[in-house]
Write a structure and sequence with these properties.
The protein has 264 residues and is mainly alpha-helical. It is built from twelve helices and four strands. Strands 3-2-1-4 form a four-stranded parallel beta sheet, sandwiched between helices. The longest helix is centred in the middle third of the chain and has 23 residues. Belongs to the NAD synthetase family. Pfam families: NAD_synthase (PF02540). It catalyses: deamido-NAD(+) + NH4(+) + ATP = AMP + diphosphate + NAD(+) + H(+).
């Protein structure tokens, strides 16, 4: 694998760049602050820390949105983050809303992907309900690695006003989290979207984040061919091609929905 970690000076530059970005987005929108979903995972934890640094605790509202598949540990960590940051937060159970959706359309019952994505979209609705009510922006918590391969729910966790850590690979997220003082047990925590029971990100992706980051940096975002990337990273070409395929197939998630070209 290649080393995508930043130096200490680069970490501080990223920290200042992201906090300034958050302030600029809020100011440009004339908003009174931000809302973000807190999952107990490293991405939302880092965004929470940076948002408080950028705006102050009073301008940050956290939402903890557990479902029946959410682990007690992750929800406890989410509340712990909010309490450590001294921000206002609410805990809202989303499963009654999901149950209502399935009552209206029972054909989707048991479809892990469809129901899991519905949970993500219900969370987005709550984020915007609070944000609209309080004149705030919704902060995204997605990182560069997951965005590149489409590992997010369209109009779910992808439905946000901005992505403060959207230019950081997963390994860089963990590194910056440690730099800003996130506790080690959270910085090193196994990543999971918890859209269904016992789900982990790396299991679903079928690849470790270290390998994914390296392939993205050298091939998808970088100049190397499939063969050169495989040789450099000592991974088989099929793995590199699979990551490239995930990137190509998920392009629609990273762009505005298309419309027909204007007629002359």
């Amino acid at each position: 694998m290649i080393d995508v970690r930043f130096s200490e000076a680069e970490l501080e530059q990223r920290r200042e760049h992201i906090t300034r970005f958050i302030r600029d987005r809020v100011d440009a929108a004339g908003a009174d602050g931000v809302v973000l979903g807190l999952s107990g995972g490293i991405d939302s934890t880092l965004v929470g820390h940076l948002a408080v640094e950028a705006l102050g605790a009073d301008a940050v509202h956290g939402l903890v949105l557990p479902a029946t598949v959410s682990s007690e540990g992750n929800m406890s960590d989410a509340e712990r983050v909010a309490q450590d940051l001294e921000i206002t937060y609410d805990v809202i159970e989303i499963e009654p809303i999901v149950d209502s959706l399935l009552s209206a359309y029972p054909e989707a019952e048991g479809d892990h992907e469809a129901v899991g994505n519905a949970r993500a979209r219900v969370r987005a609705v709550f984020n915007y309900l609070v944000a609209n009510h309080e004149n705030r922006l919704v902060l995204g918590t997605g990182n560069r690695s997951e965005a590149a391969v489409g590992y997010f729910t369209k109009y779910g966790d992808g439905a946000v006003d901005c992505h403060p850590i959207g230019n950081l690979y997963k390994g860089q997220v963990r590194q910056l989290a440690r730099h800003v003082g996130v506790p080690e047990d959270l910085a090193a925590k196994t990543a999971t979207a918890e859209l269904w029971a016992d789900q982990t990100d790396e299991d679903e992706l079928g690849i470790s984040y270290d390998t994914l980051d390296s392939i993205l940096a050298t091939h998808v975002d970088g100049p190397l061919s499939v063969a050169a990337t495989g040789r450099l990273l000592e991974v088989d070409e099929a793995t590199v091609e699979r990551v490239r395929g995930m990137y190509d197939r998920s392009e629609h998630k990273r762009t505005v929905p298309p419309a027909p070209d204007p007629l002359d």
